[in-house]
């Protein structure tokens, strides 16, 4: 990993556009999102935080989900084409820039490579995360929420949901247990070193909620999504991550397969948004589901598809939320998904249901199984 081959980088684009920087750390900057608009319907106040991922020359707004590469950032803000964008940026960096973005960029690349190589192996993550779960409990409030979604007590137990431990004493206890019993903490996303140099994990009041284990195709826990008790600025889910902390790491946004594919005679796997939605849909239907964090979270897909193929899977049925039929951006992501499925040698179908229900889990939970009506089409 040594950065792009251009004469400029995404920091130059940020500077060139005079975006307002809110916060910086070695690999990421947060700037005021130039794309967010006030939307009273979903509560957006127009003040999104655009994350600039320096090692990847990429950006994404956690609020409006506008995202792309560095040239997209420039063209979307200014409305000029890519050729003009390149000229503008080059002109900018050749004329009196005071910030040394080159060294910041090089540092970000180095920091990123170091973090990537420091990540614990899949087996180590699984081992630590399982022990971590065994030291957490599921409290009544979160359990009620899961029961309301249509899950049974047995299913809730089986999936391993827990309430995020946020009290100081819980943190001490869990960390001590992990260390005393020889579990690897260094290189495990979510864990970090605090200011006094002690290990801790990134679960506090701001991300209180339900821990949702994300299982790999070979049944290893590779991370956790958190269903927030109190959604923040339109976000219901966060990752268990420590990427902006000392010795911390990003979750890497792993995909989640709901169950082992031992009796998958149809060679089909269904795909939806988020680990919890996948678990609920599997629990209610008995069909194998894969949950990915969102329609735009597609980096994990090539590896996932390759692993599924090894288990005999031949077709992916896309059950993403029905907003792709009304939302152009989501529809674009759906087409990208379709291409990824096909390019990886699998069949692709799209499933639809009563469009008064956005998510497949909501539709399933609201109806008796005998009344379910699904349409599966080979959409283009
Ligand atoms: Zn935005």
Structure, described:
- The chain has three domains: 10-117, Zinc finger, CHC2-typedomain (DNA Primase, Chain A), CATH 3.90.580; 120-239, DNA primase DNAg catalytic core, N-terminal domain, CATH 3.90.980; 256-377, Dna Topoisomerase Vi A Subunit, Chain: A, domain 2, CATH 3.40.1360.
- 35% of the residues lie in helices and 22% in strands.
- It has twelve helices and 19 strands.
- The chain has helices spanning 10-16, 70-78, 82-94, 101-118, 122-134, 140-148, 153-159, 168-180, 275-285, 301-310, 328-343, 360-366, and strands at 21-24, 28-32, 38-39, 44-45, 49-53, 58-61, 67-69, 162-163, 191-193, 199-201, 209-215, 221-232, 235-239, 256-257, 268-273, 289-292, 315-318, 347-352, 375-377.
- Strands 14-16-15-17-18-19 form a six-stranded mixed beta sheet. Strands 1-2-5-6-7 form a five-stranded antiparallel beta sheet.
- The longest helix has 18 residues, at 101-118.
- It starts with 9 loop residues before the first helix and ends with a strand.
- The model has no long low-confidence stretch (mean pLDDT 90).
- Zinc ion binds at residues 33, 35-36, 48, 50, 61, 63-64, 66.
